[in-house]
Amino acid sequence: MASIVERPKKDGDSTFQVKWREAGEWETERFGDEDSAEQFKKLVEAHGGKWPHGWVRGKGFVEPDTDPDDMPLIDWARRYATRLTGVDKRTKDDYLREVEQHIALIVHTKRSGEVQAATIGNLTADDVQDWVRLEEDGARDEEDPKKWARRPASPKSIANRHGLLWCIVEAAINAEPQLRTKNCCTGTSLPRTDDEVAEEMVFLEREEYQRVATEITDPAARDLADWLVGTGMRWGEASALQVQDLKLTSGTPTATVSRAWKRSPKGSDRSFFLGPPKTRKARRVVALSPMQAATARRLVKGQRPEAYVFRTAQGKAWMHANFFSRKWKPAVTAAVEKGLPRRPRIHDLRHTHVAWLIAANIPLPAIQNRLGHESIQTTVDRYGHLVRSLDGEMTAAVEAAMSVPEQRAGLSVVRGG
């Protein structure tokens, strides 16, 4: 424990000395008034009987000297995003947009309360936490408070942006020369993603899917919808399948996911282009059922290897906007008018596929591989709540465990008699 000792001076005034023992040695600091001494005493005790971090004897809290290689945070963030490898141009553009629109909002607040531009070197955990709160609150238009100048960000968006900032800071730790020794993003308190009202995943029963499929009058569009719900492929993967991706003549029929449609960067002449799948594990081989194999054989008969498996009447690959507005949305609307209790999106066919597999007791690791999830955690987080097939076994196990003490107690009574 620290203590305060008053030291009278010859002129009648006093100084106040804070004393405490650290590693067996006495440490002291002097103050001109008792209130300041009391505040410092509390700081010492809050730090476990040690000098408060950042405090310099006789000077107080002092900002560290600027590293000669330090640079504005926004410049370092741009440098990080543009130098990334292993990602396509659109991903880099997305990162740069996040940097310009959100990372650029971060400022550094000194201990004195003075606000200054954030650098990669002076950024602190408090600065990061203040930024998260800024993202969460949004900002009203100064001229019209009823309007948003910047809308509040969703918990998921905040988590994604915080993850990007974490990587940006981590790059400074790994830089040569090293610009930081600690990642100030570690330990940030983020909004809970399960507190937001988000668009829920829709899981269709088999009969419910058939009610939608029946309303798809275009056979080519129906084939694609059946494929999506039957394989769990993403839209961009299924619509990019080519004849050469199918193996249908021997062994287990399969479809190899080796490409997917991607949106082109802003300013490009084309809206979409063919690129690699979403992740490394998304490049996969999907086993086909006999019914799916029969559909594939019918669709690829007489087609060149580069031809798309699923084609419009003009022989071109389906585009999402076209399929959604002309085929899927009218079918769903018609089904809802006839009593369908939910309104599924195209991507919900992937969710529905998983629900059907889980209902058939297919293990989650196998589902992970089929979907092409990079991590089993993604599969568990999204679909783990659907695994109810073992509820009976689990409750029986709990019942058996809870009943053991009672049985033992009964035995002891008999023996005692």
Could you characterize what this model shows?
The chain is α+β, with helices and mostly antiparallel strands and 417 residues long. The chain is built from 14 helices and 14 strands. A hairpin with a 3-residue loop joins strand 4 and strand 5. Keywords: DNA recombination, DNA-binding.
Please report the first level of CATH classification, the CATH class of the largest domain: Mainly Alpha
Order of SSEs, N→C? EEEHEEHHEEHEEHHHHEEEEEHHHHHH
The CATH superfamily of the largest domain is identified as: Intergrase catalytic core
Q: Compute the gyration radius: what is it?
A: 31 Å
- First-last Cα distance: 61 Å
SS summary, helix count: 14
**Strand count:** 14
Fold-level CATH name of the largest domain: hpI Integrase, Chain A
Fraction in beta strands: 5-15%
Structural class: alpha+beta
Tertiary shape? elongated
Features of the shown structure:
single chain, 417 residues, alpha+beta, hpI Integrase, Chain A, 3-stranded antiparallel beta sheet, 14 helices, 42% helix, 13% strand
